């Protein structure tokens, strides 16, 4: 069995319209992938930054996968939340990125988006403090059903990942 | 030929701290690594000198208007031995400085995952402090001059329990490290892109 180590940090976020952000993250992989060690999901701290342009999460990621197939290569899915003045966390962005297949250190920028409603629904959501969110977050990293959505662009999530592969060459796989 | 372990060599320095609102800072560091890692050489914990960003004292505790970094130039020499890349070592940094009454308070926590690839790396790591859970507690801690702290600074290098803390990010620490690896290929690992043959 070939092994993949995903070691790194969810550094933070920038270019979101407002600060006070946190991030719920999840790593999803295909069926032939087996998690040997580490956490596949978590939630970061909320940052109320001195400099509102960048929110710091410094959240560690350390995963060890074993796999029999290179298909279903893992993806990182992020959900950004914003804490409002009442202390409630509202959805502020979805995004995903593939985990790089090349070994080495990588800096990834995940572009994010969120669903929007029609003008009147958006107006009522402003007054009632409800925010549209996806019922099934699998839509964030799967290509089906996206065409039904209307979305707007949010900020960027910054991720630093190091990829270490083991025993891939024995199977004639080049990455 | 397979090897029974691989090694990671870390030579570097904690170069400086950039904190626009604070001065006269020092930095503590420790390492955090997984169960299959051991430190074979070097000190796993250290504490730097207290550094002023300018030789002229600022009596208000606030830095000078022309903000300069607090230089520590503190050496890091570590060597690790491991049998599993899981738990790749991290540096945990904590920066302290005096408040207006001269009491040492924490000015930032930060974590650095050591690079996985050999070479020289310059890392700017953002620092943050925890905020009190309620405004009332925040007011009390301000009165008492004891800002909220993490009981164990290694908390910032772990994933568990992070969702319940609220922090304020302030300042940056610059660390430069030279990374060398030994026997990773013999251990079956590939940690850098293969060159075209």
Architecture overview:
The complex is a heterodimer of chains A (175) and B (197). By secondary structure, chain A is mostly beta strands. Chain A has one domain (2-112, 155-171): C2 domain (Immunoglobulin-like, Sandwich). Chain A is built from 1 helix and 10 strands, in the order βββββββββαβ. In chain A, the strands form 2 sheets. In chain A, strands 3-6-1-10-9 form a 5-stranded antiparallel sheet, with no helix packed on it. Chain A has a 4-stranded antiparallel sheet with strand order 4-2-7-8, with no helix packed on it. In chain A, a hairpin with a 5-residue loop joins strand 7 and strand 8. Chain A starts with a strand and ends in a 9-residue tail after the last strand. Helices cover 5% and strands 46% of the residues of chain B. In chain B, the strands form 2 sheets. Chain B has a 5-stranded antiparallel sheet with strand order 3-5-1-9-8, with no helix packed on it. In chain B, strands 4-2-6-7 form a 4-stranded antiparallel sheet, with no helix packed on it. The longest helix of chain B has 10 residues, at 135-144. Chain B starts with 5 loop residues before the first strand and ends in a 7-residue tail after the last strand. The relative contact order of chain B is 0.27. At the A-B interface, strand 1, strand 5, strand 6 and strand 10 of A face strand 7, strand 8, strand 9 and strand 10 of B.
């Amino acid at each position: 069995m070939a092994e993949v180590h995903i070691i790194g940090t969810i550094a933070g976020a920038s270019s979101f319209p407002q600060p006070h952000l946190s991030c719920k993250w999840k790593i999803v992989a295909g069926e032939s992938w087996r998690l040997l060690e580490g956490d596949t999901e978590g939630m970061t701290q909320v940052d109320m930054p001195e400099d509102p342009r960048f929110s710091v999460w410094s959240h560690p990621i350390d995963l060890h996968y074993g796999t029999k197939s290179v298909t279903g290569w893992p993806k990182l899915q992020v959900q950004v939340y914003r804490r409002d003045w009442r202390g409630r966390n509202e959805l502020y962005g979805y995004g995903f990125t593939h985990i790089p297949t090349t070994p080495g250190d990588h800096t990834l920028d995940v572009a994010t988006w969120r669903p929007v409603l029609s003008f009147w629904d958006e107006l009522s959501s402003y007054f009632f403090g409800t925010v549209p969110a996806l019922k099934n977050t699998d839509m964030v990293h799967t290509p089906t059903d996206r065409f039904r959505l209307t979305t707007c662009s949010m900020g960027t999530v910054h991720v630093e990942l190091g990829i270490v592969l083991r025993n891939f060459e024995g199977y004639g796989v080049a990455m | 030929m397979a090897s029974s372990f691989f090694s990671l060599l870390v030579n570097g320095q904690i170069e400086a701290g950039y904190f626009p609102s604070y001065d006269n800072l020092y930095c503590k560091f420790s390492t955090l690594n997984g169960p299959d890692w051991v430190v074979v050489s070097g000190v796993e914990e250290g504490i730097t000198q207290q550094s002023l960003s300018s030789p002229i004292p600022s009596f208000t505790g606030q830095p000078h208007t022309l903000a300069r970094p607090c230089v520590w130039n503190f050496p890091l020499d570590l060597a690790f031995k491991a049998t599993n890349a899981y738990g790749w070592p991290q540096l945990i940094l904590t920066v302290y400085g005096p408040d207006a009454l001269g009491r040492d308070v924490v000015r930032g926590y930060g974590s650095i995952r050591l690079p996985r690839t050999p070479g020289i790396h310059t890392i700017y790591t953002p620092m943050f402090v925890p905020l009190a859970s309620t405004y009332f507690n925040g007011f009390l801690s301000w009165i008492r001059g004891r800002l909220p702290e993490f009981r164990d600074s290694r908390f910032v290098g772990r994933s568990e329990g992070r969702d319940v803390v609220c922090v304020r990010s302030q300042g940056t620490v610059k660390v430069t490290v030279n990374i060398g690896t030994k026997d990773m290929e013999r251990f079956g690992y590939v940690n850098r892109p293969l060159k075209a043959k």
